[in-house]
């Protein structure tokens, strides 16, 4: 069996591309960690470390020899030899075949790496800038750039899947409504979790920075070179700062300024206000997407058309009527009778979040009343919602009375203007009589 395999491989030795070596490299790259770097004078390349390659061969020696026995015999490798010797021989074969090229770390000259953030530094462990090495002898301490792109079934499947996903998202407008809403909710939830992690990272860093420590929760979260799993590893990083007296004074001043800002902010806002604002904003975003994607579009259009023919007072009264029905009241009169002057009822209504179906003008008034209740105001100081009776148009008798009152006021104004015009003439006559 080995001789037949070797004869098949000998036919490939005359060609420029070693198929057996390519198959071996494809097998190894499935388990090797790779990174991207800029090769000096050319373009971005993908590379792996020799030490990782040696470790992989050492851990999977028997499996590799079984799958690539023909290649090992053709090169003259002792199958019973040490793993280090086998790995070095196969690595040198890859270099000679042109599948990989040995590179060296090539940092930018005259650049102080200590002034660059830790996750962006060009270190010797995983360099960001490399150059082709003069000595192409395979060694464990080298970095090896991959000179070809494997065309295996996995790559083709990944390419096909990527094209399919792009086409599917291009057809988003014709998706079923349920799929649209599910995608929107999932997107908002993931972005909210990411924003929460960002805020937690910033709060922890600033709080410990005041104390002279550099602490990062998920330090590789925004590292563009890290993979999906690597972005969440390690969980945190901690380092003691070595600052001079000027930097210590800056940190102390910043801490005092931050504490004073939070103290002044706490006089007008509580933690519950911030929580309610965040939850309300989250719900508003979900509802906004629900409306934009087509949910209740007929109802929204109808409401907008009706509002266009109403005065501001009538529009607000109508919005209150719709809102209280969502909160299990029959109409606005029942709400005014049992709830509008009862702070306990208003607080229960606010906590039940039935107001999410209300218009924004109603939400603002309801929130203002709840805030007045929290401040201990008397129920008489609350703002009652308008009703249809308050906004009803006056009858004919009222209109006639108002017209008569306007005419009387107009006659009185004309008499006053006539008296003012006659006043200078009377003054002249009185002066002539005195003379």
TrEMBL record:
It is a multi-pass membrane protein. Belongs to the SEC62 family. InterPro entries: Sec62. This is Translocation protein SEC62. Residues 376-435 are annotated as: Disordered. Keywords: Endoplasmic reticulum, Membrane, Protein transport, Translocation, Transmembrane, Transmembrane helix, Transport. The keyword Ubl conjugation does not apply. The keyword Endoplasmic reticulum applies. It comes from the Eukaryota. GO terms for biological process: post-translational protein targeting to membrane, translocation. The chain crosses the membrane at residues 153-172, 184-210. One of its GO terms (cellular component) is endoplasmic reticulum membrane. Residues 398-419 have a biased composition (Acidic residues). Pfam families: Sec62. It comes from Gregarina niphandrodes.
């Amino acid at each position: 069996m080995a001789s037949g395999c070797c004869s098949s491989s000998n036919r490939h030795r005359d060609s420029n591309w070693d198929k057996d070596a390519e198959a071996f490299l494809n097998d190894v790259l499935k388990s090797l960690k790779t990174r991207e770097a800029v090769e000096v004078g050319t373009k971005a390349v993908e590379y792996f470390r020799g030490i990782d390659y040696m470790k992989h061969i050492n851990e999977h020696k028997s499996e590799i020899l079984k799958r690539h026995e023909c290649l090992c015999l053709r090169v003259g490798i002792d199958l019973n030899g040490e793993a280090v010797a086998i790995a070095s021989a196969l690595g040198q074969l890859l270099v000679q075949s042109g599948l990989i090229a040995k590179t060296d770390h090539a940092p930018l000259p005259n650049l102080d790496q200590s002034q660059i953030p830790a996750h962006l530094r060009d270190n010797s462990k995983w360099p960001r800038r490399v150059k082709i090495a003069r000595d192409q002898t395979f060694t464990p301490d080298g970095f090896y750039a991959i000179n070809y792109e494997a065309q295996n079934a996995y790559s083709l499947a990944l390419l096909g899947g990527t094209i399919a996903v792009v086409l599917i998202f291009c057809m988003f407008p014709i998706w079923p409504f349920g799929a649209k809403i599910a995608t929107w909710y999932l997107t908002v939830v993931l972005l909210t979790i990411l924003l929460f992690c960002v805020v937690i990272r910033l709060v922890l860093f600033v709080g410990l920075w005041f104390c002279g420590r550099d602490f990062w929760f998920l330090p590789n979260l925004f590292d563009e070179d890290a993979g999906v799993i690597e972005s969440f590893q390690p969980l945190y990083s901690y380092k003691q700062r070595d600052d001079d007296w000027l930097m210590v004074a800056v940190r102390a001043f910043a801490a005092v300024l931050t504490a004073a800002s939070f103290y002044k902010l706490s006089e007008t806002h509580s933690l519950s206000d911030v929580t309610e604002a965040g939850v309300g904003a989250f719900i508003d975003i979900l509802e906004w997407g629900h409306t934009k994607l087509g949910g209740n579009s007929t109802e929204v259009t109808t409401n907008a058309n009706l509002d266009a023919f109403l005065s501001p007072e009538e529009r607000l009264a109508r919005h209150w009527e719709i809102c209280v029905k969502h909160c299990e009241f029959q109409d606005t009169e029942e709400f005014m009778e049992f709830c509008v002057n009862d702070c306990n009822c208003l607080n229960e209504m606010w906590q039940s979040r039935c107001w999410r179906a209300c218009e924004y003008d109603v939400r603002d008034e309801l929130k203002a009343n709840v805030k007045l209740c929290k401040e201990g105001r008397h129920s008489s100081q609350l703002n009652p919602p308008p009703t249809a009776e308050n906004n009803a148009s006056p009858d004919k008798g009222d209109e006639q009375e108002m017209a008569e009152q306007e005419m009387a006021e107009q006659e009185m104004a004309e008499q006053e203007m006539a008296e003012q015009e006659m006043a200078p003439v009377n003054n002249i006559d009185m002066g002539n009589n005195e003379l």
